Give the backbone structure.
Amino acid sequence: MIQQYANPARFNRLAATLMPWFAWPAGVLIAVGLYFALFNSPPDYQQGDTVRIMYVHVPSAWMALFVYTSMAISSAVGLIWKHPLAHLSAQAAAPIGACFTFVCLLTGSLWGKPMWGTWWVWDARLTSVLILFFLYLGFMALQNAFDDPARGERSAAILAIIGFINVPIIKFSVDWWNTLHQPASVVKISGPAIHSSMLIPLFVMGVGFTLYFCALLLLRMKTLMLARRARGMSMAQLHQQASE
Amino acid sequence: MNALVLIMRREIRLALRQIGESAIIVLFFVLAAVLFPFGVGPEPNMLARIAPGVVWVTALLAAMLSFERLFTPDFEDGSLEQLALGPAPLEMIALAKAAAHWLTTGLPLMIAAPLIAVLYRLPDAGYGALMTTMALGTPTISLIGTVGAALTLGSRRGGVLLSLLVIPLIVPVLIFGTAAIDAAIGGIPVRQHLMLMGGFLLGALVLTPLATAAALRQALE
């Protein structure tokens, strides 16, 4: 099943079929989620309207971890089974994940200023997310650092797998250390500590962000594939000109 | 095991023949640390306060400078390929390289650290913790840096890229290293910090040779 889609043409057809099924629901869900988040959900009894930052901040944080996890998995698949599209998927996911991480840090900082009175604190959650951002940047830099692109993607894949150690650290940082950042309140054994009037828009946004990521990932993979082909064609042309 | 000792002996012999390379790393360590009093002012209380952090940060930066040369000469003259073709597993070679790196760079940095602490008037209670954390932390740095060196082997702009990859992974060592020294100065138990650092070292000892070997295989493919 997986090997079948190693064929770029077949993958392209599948991507073209799947794309609208990701892109349209993503747009609708994010629009609906934003409407509920901004207009149709209660303000927090302590934080007032600032709590609405949460509806962007928390899903971006989820996505930052989710995208990194997907990147680490496709890197492992690429290294183990040498699946030709796996490295491509990791390569396509990295800038998207970096952007989600950046949005998460940015909105967190905007939220921190009115609530904590500071743009930034060096607590475990914030620091580990910042490290995640640097891991994304390192992954992209390492990928582009070699004359041989295949070497770059394999080295970057190893880095992605090593860096995965940071993902559980981020997840549990608020439990292991006493942080200014609040502890987990959505995914808990005792059930979520957020009222459903806030939880539902949050989940709508979360699902919307995930679908948006899937659509963007397919688009970027297609673009990267075309770019690779264009490079191959121009190389072939140069080669031909040289031999004439 | 024999191979481990042989490769380490080779590395150390090479390092001793070019003793200047190790010396220059230590020199950088001392120089970088000496810069801070000019930057933040020579007020003794403040210097004593920032001493653990300065020693650790500058030691990290000095170590960063040393990793680029870890595999490059062997890679360029083909001896790395010879080593890889030999009977010793690449993981063993990676471990030997990291151990030799620690002996020729980490250990000198560790020996120079109290000198800087004296310049910064680190309180007496902090020296024990300083040496213990250095003893636990510098081998971890050598091990993680070896992975970075293998990953960036043969790349353009190797040195800067290597720092970009390795520094985020080394942050925990820095956090707990300075926390342990601060705790010792403040009279708080340091045991938990040291145990965590020991844990990092053991984890790195097991995992990094695998990662280094995988990266070297990609480089030699």
User: Anything to note?
Assistant: Chain B has a mean pLDDT of 90. Chain B touches chain A at residues 147, 151-152, 154-158, 161, 164-165, 167-169, 171, 211, 214-215, 218-219, 221 (CB under 8 Å). Chain B is about 85% helix and 0% strand.
